[in-house]
Design goal:
Blueprint: E1 3-6, H1 10-21, E2 30-33, H2 37-47, E3 50-52, H3 55-59, E4 64-67, H4 74-79, E5 90-93, H5 100-107, E6 112-116, E7 126-132, H6 138-149, E8 152-156, H7 161-171, H8 173-190, H9 195-216, H10 220-226, H11 233-243, H12 246-264
Helix pairs in contact: 7-12, 8-9
This protein binds NADP nicotinamide-adenine-dinucleotide phosphate.
């Protein structure tokens, strides 16, 4: 199956590697487009795929076109492809904030899936939320699903607005987790551990908590209550979080990301 990936940056590389690893396409069937010559050289050497600086050259005989450009300025690149993608090809966009209506207009193409993966795709543990316009046929829906599953879990959204929600929740989500880890490492250092020890403590606490959640399949609330005894130490911490409205702070952050995802559509 001929697949072209437009934008061979962080996500473009992850998607290329995952498609090859899962044998959805052979290296000889893939072309990665990037403006950066050194990136093209590296991708060619690592994955034995064809590379090009011309998106036009890549798309004309592709059965799947995956757009991994930064949203800003992508309209110029995509408008130049107007009418050049085969009408029965599937287009998949992973760009934050860019709506299907814009993609349809810029590309003059109707068979499009819009998606939002996240950085954990790098290790095959991504979370991708996707939405297909009504023109996408069953075989293409299955193909899109298979591509998303090649780098993690996927969820098909029933409403395009949920892609912006996913951007704010699971798209940016790994960064929120790392932010919380950073703050806990700082708290650990404040309580006397050195930086290396704190990193070890927090890393294993995250790992253990996640594995426990996975293995028990209990809700986070149940798990939290299991380790919180009335008037105990955890209870003191949780009550402080509640008093300082930590939950509200997190919600506000996620809402700010959602607002930003909406704004990106107009930039
Ligand atoms: N990173 C994430 O965690 C993540 C998660 C979900 C969704 N996304 C979405 O994925 C998209 C790509 O993100 P990314 O992190 O992979 O960005 P990135 O690393 O900057 O990749 C974009 C690539 O496209 C290249 N490029 C720029 N203009 C081009 C053109 N005209 N033709 C061909 N290639 C061009 C860039 O080259 P230069 O670097 O030389 O400009 C870069 O290599 C974004 O739209 C983002 O919203 C990212």
């Amino acid at each position: 199956m001929k697949i072209s990936v437009i934008g061979g940056g962080v996500m473009g590389e992850i998607i290329t590697r995952s498609i090859l690893n899962q044998q959805i396409a052979k290296p000889s069937e893939m072309m990665v487009v990037d403006i950066n010559a050194s990136k093209r050289r590296i991708l060619k050497k690592k994955y034995l795929v064809a590379t090009s600086k011309s998106a036009l050259k890549a798309v004309f005989n592709s059965e799947v076109v995956i757009i991994c450009l930064k949203p800003q300025g992508s309209n110029q690149v995509l408008t130049a492809l107007k009418g050049k993608i085969k009408s029965d090809a599937l287009v998949i966009s992973i760009m934050a904030g860019i709506r299907l209506a814009s993609l349809e207009k810029w590309l003059g193409h109707r068979n499009i899936v819009r998606s939002m993966p996240n950085i954990s795709s790098r290790i095959g543990e991504g979370m991708t939320v996707w939405f297909a316009n009504k023109n996408v046929q069953t075989l293409h829906l299955l193909l899109a699903q298979m591509i998303f599953q090649s780098f993690g879990k996927e969820l098909r959204a029933i409403d395009e607005n949920l892609i912006d929600s996913a951007t704010a929740v699971s798209g940016s989500g790994p960064a929120y987790i790392f932010y919380i880890a950073e703050k806990l490492i700082k708290a650990s250092i404040d309580l006397g551990f050195d930086a290396k020890e704190s990193l070890k403590l927090i890393r294993q606490t995250f790992q253990g908590a996640m594995d426990l959640w996975d293995e028990t399949a209990l809700s986070p609330k149940t798990l939290r209550e299991m380790v919180t005894s009335e008037k105990g130490t955890t209870d003191a911490a949780i009550k402080t979080f509640e008093r300082l409205k930590a939950g509200e702070v997190l919600t506000k952050g996620v809402q700010a990301a959602f607002k930003r995802a909406k704004e990106l559509a107009n930039e």
